[in-house]
Design brief:
With 342 residues, the chain is an alpha/beta fold. Helix content is 32%, strand content 21%. The protein contains twelve helices and 14 strands. The chain has an eight-stranded mixed β-sheet, with helices on both faces. It has a six-stranded antiparallel β-sheet with strand order 9-10-14-13-12-11, covered by helices on one side. Strand 5 and strand 6 (153-159) form a beta hairpin. It is globular and about 65 Å long. It starts with 5 loop residues before the first helix and ends in a 7-residue tail after the last helix.
Length: 342
């Protein structure tokens, strides 16, 4: 056990003092897809004292190509990503305190979920959640590290409230990406490269090496061999609604939408009103002649032409439908009675 971090300690910019600091820090990772799992593994192996993993989804076959913490058995067991990631990482480093949270991050819960974190790491591919991270980071002065990738293209930027522009400041200066992993795919090397930059910046900040932090917005294409760095320090806006002189934190104060189409998945997420008793839900479904697959975190079943996943936190995924109006009709016509809060 004493040799676990020996090579990292021998790296002079970290040393024993830096390693001791890492062991006292708390990092929250939101999103346990490709970027989130890559960053989580590196941070846990590095000896961060406490790591909180937050993700709303469960493991599917298409994840295994690039989301490195998951196995085929996780898919068969329909495990939530946060739970599967915690199990794997706990076997990697039992000295790190790892917390798994299976929740949809919203304006209502992000402050509670983030808590007293020292650093936030972006592992999501969702614009609204990123902007929520940006607002909560600005409000509570928590640094965070943005990361994104699609195809062979990646981008990352380190945001320190009060010192750098926030993501809201940069919206008009970021590339207008209409592509997603579902439409354009993604290769794992770009994931690993973005995560490597994110974790490197995390290690710098968590060990107090602020002067070594990158000041630029970094982007690259590993397939076409392109790389660029943009100095964005002058783009901080005093009128920014998230980090300016009179912030209103627009995403933290935005209304929560009950019906949301999940990008590229032919699926609508329906947010519930609170935790749901999955055992009682299964009993009720059985009385309707519907068979279910269940684990402690979610319940799956088929009704008509739809596949339904209900989570313990009250959410419902309606698979096989991307139209919000039709999803609402299906929910009202077929599922309102079944999905009443228990």
């Amino acid at each position: 056990m004493m040799d676990r971090y020996s090579r990292q300690i021998r790296f002079r910019p970290i040393g024993q003092e830096g390693q001791d600091q890492l062991g006292q820090r708390h990092v929250v990772i939101i999103g346990l897809g490709a970027l989130g799992t890559a960053s989580a593994e590196q941070l846990v192996r590095a000896g961060i004292g406490r790591v909180t993993l937050i993700d709303r989804d469960y493991v599917e076959w298409s994840n295994l190509q690039r989301q490195q913490l998951y196995t085929e058995q996780d898919v068969r067991n329909h495990l939530p990503k946060a739970v599967a990631a915690k199990r794997r990482l706990g076997a990697v480093n039992s000295t790190v305190t790892i917390e798994a949270i299976v929740e949809d991050v919203t304006a209502m819960n992000i402050t509670r979920l983030v808590g007293q974190a020292d650093l936030l790491v972006d592992g999501t591919d969702n614009f609204v959640i990123r902007m929520l991270m940006n607002d909560v980071a600005a409000k509570f002065r928590i640094p965070w590290i943005y990361g994104a990738c699609v195809g062979s293209y990646g981008m990352t930027y380190t945001i320190r409230p009060g010192q750098t522009p926030c993501l809201h400041c940069l919206l008009n200066h970021l590339p207008k990406q209409q592509e997603t992993c579902e439409t354009s795919g993604v290769i794992s090397p770009v994931v690993q490269l973005v995560a490597a930059h994110q974790v490197t910046e995390a290690l710098k900040y968590l060990t107090g090496a602020d002067n070594a932090l990158r000041q630029t917005l970094l982007s690259f294409d590993v397939w076409d061999n392109h790389q660029s760095q943009i100095n964005v320090g002058s783009l901080r806006q005093s009128a920014c609604p998230s980090c300016g002189d009179d912030p209103v934190y627009p995403y933290l104060n935005a209304p929560i939408v009950q019906f949301v189409t999940l990008c590229g998945r032919d699926t609508v997420q329906i947010r519930g009103e609170g935790p749901r008793d999955l055992v009682r839900l299964e009993q009720e479904l059985t009385t309707h002649g519907i068979s279910c697959l269940q684990n402690p975190y979610l319940l799956m079943f088929k009704a008509d032409d739809y596949r339904i996943t209900a989570f313990a936190d009250g959410r419902i995924l309606l698979h096989g439908e991307a139209n919000l109006q039709q999803a609402k009709r299906v929910y009202e016509n077929y599922f309102t009675g079944i999905f009443t809060k228990k």
